[in-house]
Structures are given as C-alpha cells and as structure tokens.
Amino acid sequence: MSTPTSQRGSKAAKSTARAEAARLRARRRLLVRVGIGVVVVGAVMFGVFRAGGGSGERGSNRFQVGRPASGADAPAIQLASTGGGQFDLASQRGKTVLLYFQEGVGCQPCWNQIRDIERNQARFKALGIDEVVSVTGNSLGDLRQKVSDEGLQTPVLSDPDLSVSKTYHANDFGMMGTSADGHTFIVVGPDGKILWRADFGGAPDYTMYVPVDELISDLRTGLGVA
Fold it and tell me: What is the third-level CATH fold of 78-223?
C-alpha cells in the first residue's frame, strides 16, 4: 500500500528540519571553539606585550646570563653613534660602561627604558656607572630620527648586520629569534673586562622593559655595591 503524498511530504520536511538543526548545532560548536581560541591567543599576546610594557609596568626579575659573562674580556665595539662619529669601546678604558643591547626602533618599551635610565642618571652614577650606551640593529639614519623624536641624549650605536651583537650573543635573547637583539645589559669595567651581565629578553617572558628600581637592585647585587 503506497504512502500518501502528504505523509511523504511531512516526513521529508521533518528530515530537512532535523538536518538543519544538526547543522546549526555544529556551527555553534565551531563558533565556540573559534571564540575560545581567539581568547586564548589574545591572552597570550597580552601577556607577552604587557611584559614589555612601558614605565610603571611590572617587570620580571628573571633573566638569563649569556656569554661572554663576568670575568671575560669585552669584545671590541667600533660602531657609528647617534652622538656623532664612531664609538670605540677601547677608548673608554678607565671608565665603567653600561652597554644596553635592545630590539630597536619598533620596540617602544626599549626606548622607554633609555628614557627612564636618563631620568635616574644619578642613581646609576652612584653605582659607579660612568657611561650608558645602547646598541641595536637599525640604520644610523633611523636611529638619529628616533633619538630626536624621543628627546634622548644617550648614544645609540648602529649595528645593522649585528656583527657586534653576535659577538656578544645579545641577539640570542629576544622575541625575533636571532634577527634582532633582545634586552641585554652588560657592564664593562675600567680594565675592559665584563663585570656583570643580564639577558632579560629571552623566553618565556620576553621582557622588553625592566623597571628602574629592579634594574638598580640587580646591578647593585651583581656589582657588589653596598
């Protein structure tokens, strides 16, 4: 006995409705999974960039110590400087120099770091630091523009092929692999030997800014200053 056309139509409609409901449930599950993924990625990126935030944000006390480290002779540095001419580390014998390797023009927290060091210059001098010099991989023209825009006085050295940075292994600790410096501080003593080193820029925190109070504390401990 054949099924009436009206019944067949009703069954087909119900089947279509069930299929559409199943598609809607699947779509909702997909949207939920995508939403969760976006939230997780956003949280991770926020954490990374907050760690590299500007002045006033909480930095990390955890840092690595690369090589060359304390006790080693500081490799030669002869690089063009935003202060004019060429900076030669050998000419600084008799002084204690704080070298600050940083990511460069695109890393605003790195420049906030220089600004805040300048604002606390007397505190660094009290630790025996005579000179602060920054090193990064940008061209001299770009660095001159950035220094001018930020109103900074600290000499910034251009190391476009990272030749010096690689000698100091300062490009081993950062967010960009080995293609840029991380956030490394190295103190070179009057005799040309490294007195202290801290590489803040590496995993897992990728710190691109260290609050001055913390940096001063780390320096005081590392240099044995009372």
Answer: Glutaredoxin (3.40.30)
End-to-end CA distance of the chain: 103
For every one of its 226 residues, what pLDDT tens digit does the chain have, with 9 covering 90 and above? 455 555 555 555 556 666 666 665 655 664 445 344 433 333 333 333 333 333 333 334 579 999 999 999 999 999 999 999 999 999 999 999 999 999 999 999 999 999 999 999 999 999 999 999 999 999 999 999 999 999 999 999 999 999 999 999 999 998 888 999 999 999 999 999 999 999 999 888 899 999 999 999 999 999 999 7
Instruction: State the Cα–Cα distance between residues 118 and 143, nearest whole angstrom.
Output: 17
Count helices and strands in the chain by DSSP H and E runs: 6, 7
What tokens does 132 get? 């602060």
Angle between helices 212-223 and 108-119 (to 10 degrees): 70
The alpha-helical segments, DSSP class H, found in the chain are: 5-51, 108-119, 121-126, 140-150, 163-168, 212-223
Sign, CA dihedral 178-179-183-187, equals positive
